[in-house]
Amino acid sequence: MSHAAPRRIAVVDIGKTNAKLALHDLVEGRDLFVRTLPNTVLAAPPYPHFDVDRLWRFLLEALAECAGLHAVDALSVTTHGACAALVDADDLVLPILDYESPLPDELAGDYDRARPPFAETASPRLPGGLNVGAQLFWLEARFPEAFARARHLLPYPQYWAWRLTGTAAAEVTSLGCHTDLWEPGTGRPSRLARERGWDRLLPSLRSAFDTLGPLRPELAAQVGLAEPIPVFCGLHDSNASLLPHLLSRPAPFTVLSTGTWTVAMAVGGRLDGLDPARDTLANVDALGRPVPSGRFMGGREFDRLTENAPAEPSATDLARVLENEVMAVPSFAPGTGPFPGAQGRWSVAPETLSPQERTTVASLYAALMTERVLALIGAGGPSIVEGPFARNPLYLAALQALTARPVLASQGATGTTAGAALLALGTQAPPPVPAHAAAGDVSGLDGPVLRRYAQAWRRQAEA
């Protein structure tokens, strides 16, 4: 293999809704190959868990197909957060719990007494298994014998890297993602992790940019690669979206990584104003630095509001929705976002609306929720939108009007894939400048009418 810098990077991208294998060309800045698979949860004993064996088969089949069509220089990994794997020398000792399961709440009282304060971890208390610490607390109590067999606690990106290389590692972007297991200020495992002994299960801390090793020779042969290729440590998906901008853009700016979750990461924002009761927190970037962040389940809520059937609205649809103040008020993903205790509701019976009107309401809802999150984390400068919402013109234009700051939409490859591939260049190489387009005008989006609509929405949301 040539000693030139890797160019074509196969990215394992495990999102909460979909898994993907993509081949990203770092020179051309685009994906040459993409295969996807729904990321299903097995509702089977001993508890709802991710179907990692199905994902593994998919990834190897997709990688074999990719290698038959293109040269592959390296592998990188990115995954959703709130997820970790307990393994022995060879395999999982327990299935990987779905973080949306309510089962950890069975021990919520005991866990709340054990977990560290927000001031130490910048990790808010979240429902179900959204705090990895709550997952571990419940698993250790319910399955003590299996838990005791664990040799390593692997953040989810590093679980897949371990399967690919056989090398166990931990990395800060996943450890610092509202786990209750990490102290961003000190850069060490939290008091909870130390007191429970979980810190001893964490492998050596590695940089996301590190090569963990070559692809295991038997896997290289299975997928048709002539020789093993390097596998990079990998990182949390929202941080993958942030990385190209972190390496190429001065602060302040905010990256909005959109998918099942809409995650805002405000480089140059305020750490001192974070409110754990409103789903704001500090993530940790790939360089180990805390970043003020906020989130809501934007993609999940958009799908619910549109009944998974969005339709392109017209200027007439938009004007009608704004003038009549037809709106959805949070929250449609209870326990998350800036209004976690609120119950989502419509101002009119949603069945009376056309698909175009529902899509208008859903797009405005997402923009209004995003604006609230940005205000809470002290965001400044341009907002850069990655993922599905980057292809929603109404969302982009409304967000720009609401924040009175530039909004830029990612062009081409998704931020997670491009960011994870960028690990192959290291921190010293000049990164490619991400391609973005400014939010355009949307016919029917009247500024004064939007402001009145937003004021009415906020009154109801804050009530």
UniProtKB/TrEMBL annotation:
A GO biological process held by the record: carbohydrate metabolic process
Ranges for domain Carbohydrate kinase FGGY C-terminal: 251-424
Keyword Ubl conjugation tagged: no
InterPro entries the UniProt entry points to: ATPase_NBD, FGGY_C_2, FGGY_Carb_Kinase, FGGY_N
Keywords: Kinase, Transferase
Family of the protein in this entry: Belongs to the FGGY kinase family.
Lineage, broadest ranks: Bacteria, Pseudomonadati, Pseudomonadota, Alphaproteobacteria, Hyphomicrobiales
Occurrences of domain Carbohydrate kinase FGGY N-terminal (ranges): 10-243
Gene3D superfamilies xrefs: 3.30.420.40
One annotated GO molecular function: kinase activity
Transmembrane segments: none
Pfam families xref list: FGGY_C_2 (PF21546), FGGY_N (PF00370)
UniProt-recorded name of the protein: Sugar (Pentulose or hexulose) kinase
